[in-house]
């Protein structure tokens, strides 16, 4: 379980994420939704030590993680798939997977069973994959390394709806095996069908944090409506 208490962050002096409390529970998917520029990516980057932490605490499975030590999260089995998918373009699909595999981690789900392209295109250079294929490879890499927490930025970006459904199905299986899954997106869309908890950010703050349930879609429509 990932717990953020009063977490604030940004870039140098620039404050982007205002003090935020957030819990991402093991065994379920939490969706973090918000418009372009709401601060979702900066929140993830602050958690993972890639942006500056201005205050607050980050705790993973009860262990407090010091700011500026991204390796502590990696060691604790937490992975972030960034917007650019974090794949090595000059390496093959198989090499990308080999590098992601950790000796101390048995993935909850073998990504090859979820994404046939990992087998079909094992020898292909990752840089020559389509956007959607790179996305699948990125998620597969996160699946191999993430035991306690998998966070995915802009999950649906560039993915066909049919692939989104497969990916969400796979992430649901991973969550059911006990991993905390945090999915970030601009649109609630398909994520709502798979998320137990929904969090909305606006202007660097959490403006909604609620269990998924009846009526939530309408509240989200109101919150995310273009004003
Ligand atoms: P998107 O959906 O476009 O990724 P987001 O909700 O993830 O949006 P962020 O990327 O976290 O939002 O951006 C939040 C704010 O932080 C924006 O105002 C942006 O201009 C600012 N910002 C982002 N990166 C930097 C940076 N490297 N230095 C300074 N400000 C930044």
Automatic annotation (TrEMBL):
**Which Pfam families does this chain map to?**
ABC_tran
Keyword Transport, does the record have it? Answer: yes
What is this protein's name? ABC-type branched-subunit amino acid transport system ATPase component
InterPro entries linked: AAA+_ATPase, ABC_transporter-like_ATP-bd, BCAA_Transport_ATP-bd_LivF, P-loop_NTPase
Q: Which organism is it from?
A: Streptomyces nymphaeiformis
The UniProt record lists the ABC transporter domain at 2-227
- Name the protein family: Belongs to the ABC transporter superfamily.
Keywords (alphabetical) are:
Amino-acid transport, ATP-binding, Nucleotide-binding, Transport
Tell me the Gene Ontology biological-process terms attached to this UniProt entry: L-amino acid transport
